């Protein structure tokens, strides 16, 4: 069956703020490890914003204490303040708003450095240093090329013969080595063309690229079966016929075929 391979794990990474890109540490095709730095923004404005937010939060904490003391509580009693009273005091003091702004500024500063979420390969990196980051576009994509997934379709009458765990062989259309895998998922839905989608986990060994077109063969042990080449089957009056040789004469045999691959039929 014809199919396509895709990375099982894929992460589109983007910056959350539009600061200037200070450094880019990788390029397309580079293999990276989880947690490795990919790029970072100029953090001057972000760090100033974080410092201001931290000062505002400290002031709000002092204001919150003043509000509670004004209501007759002492610092030792703050843990005993009723929930509703504490909520109103935090609103009056501006504590909740200051805390929210501080947490946002802290997150923006931390996320000014992009890191790899898992081991993989860098793709679709087109940005350049010293230019503002575009928050609406993906900065780069990380693909796990070791764990690939082949997606292909089978006819609905073959569905009964496809099981999770069945072995598969994947061969790129571009040629080269074949890769082994196993069926990981069978979608229990037949489309309007009578086809069923199947997925298989494949060990790409770092040699398969996401989006690559492939041919997938499913292998399953069906016991002893009579297998014949497709070229041996001819049609006569709409019926399948196979000729056999007996005592020097060609014998005419009607057959019914079942499962098939690219070159062979199973006689059922």
Secondary-structure map:
Layout: E1 2-7, E2 10-13, E3 21-24, E4 31-32, E5 37-41, H1 44-70, H2 83-93, H3 95-110, E6 113-115, E7 120-123, E8 140-143, E9 147-155, E10 167-172, E11 179-190, E12 195-203, E13 213-219, E14 226-229, E15 233-236, E16 239-246, E17 249-254, E18 257-260, E19 264-267
Antiparallel strand pairs: 1-9, 1-13, 2-8, 3-5, 4-7, 5-6, 7-8, 9-12, 10-11, 10-13, 11-12, 14-19, 15-16, 16-17, 18-19
Please tell me how large the radius of gyration is: 32 Å
CATH class of the largest domain: Mainly Beta
Strand order of the largest sheet: 1-9-12-11-10-13
Give helix and strand order, one letter per element, not per position.
EEEEEHHHEEEEEEEEEEEEEE
> What is the number of independent domains?
4
CATH topology label of the largest domain: Elongation Factor Tu (Ef-tu), domain 3
CATH architecture of the largest domain, by name, is Beta Barrel
Query: Which stretches are poorly predicted, pLDDT < 50 over at least 5 residues?
Result: none
Q: Separation of termini?
A: 21 Å
Count of runs of 4 or more consecutive helical residues: 3
The average pLDDT score comes to 90
What proportion strand? Answer: 35-45%
GO molecular function: transmembrane transporter activity
Family: Belongs to the membrane fusion protein (MFP) (TC 8.A.1) family.
InterPro entries: MFP_Efflux_Pump, RND_pump_MFP
Protein name: Efflux RND transporter periplasmic adaptor subunit
């Amino acid at each position: 069956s014809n199919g396509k391979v895709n990375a099982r794990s894929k992460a589109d990474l983007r910056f959350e703020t539009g600061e200037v890109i200070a450094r880019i540490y990788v390029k397309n095709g580079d293999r990276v490890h989880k947690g490795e730095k990919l790029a970072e923004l100029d953090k001057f404005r972000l760090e100033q914003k974080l410092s201001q937010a931290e000062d505002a939060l400290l002031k709000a904490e002092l204001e919150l204490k003043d509000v509670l003391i004004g209501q007759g509580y002492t610092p030792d009693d703050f843990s005993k303040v009723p929930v509703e009273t504490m909520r109103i005091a935090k609103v009056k003091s501006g504590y909740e708003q200051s805390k929210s702004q501080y947490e946002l500024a802290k997150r923006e500063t931390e996320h000014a450095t992009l890191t790899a979420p898992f081991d993989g390969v860098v793709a679709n990196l087109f940005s350049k240093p010293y230019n503002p980051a575009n928050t609406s576009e993906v900065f780069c994509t990380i693909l796990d090329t070791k764990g690939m997934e082949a997606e292909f379709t089978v006819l609905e009458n073959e569905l009964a013969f496809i099981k999770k765990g069945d072995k598969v062989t994947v061969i790129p259309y571009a040629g080269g080595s074949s890769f082994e895998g196993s069926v990981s998922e069978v979608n229990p839905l037949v489309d309007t063309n009578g086809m069923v989608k199947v997925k298989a986990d494949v060990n790409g060994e770092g040699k398969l690229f996401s989006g690559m077109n492939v041919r997938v063969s499913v292998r399953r042990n069906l016991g002893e079966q009579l297998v014949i080449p497709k070229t041996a089957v001819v049609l006569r009056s709409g019926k399948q016929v196979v000729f056999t040789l007996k005592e020097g004469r060609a014998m005419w045999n009607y057959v019914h075929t079942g499962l098939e691959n690219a070159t062979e039929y199973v006689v059922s």
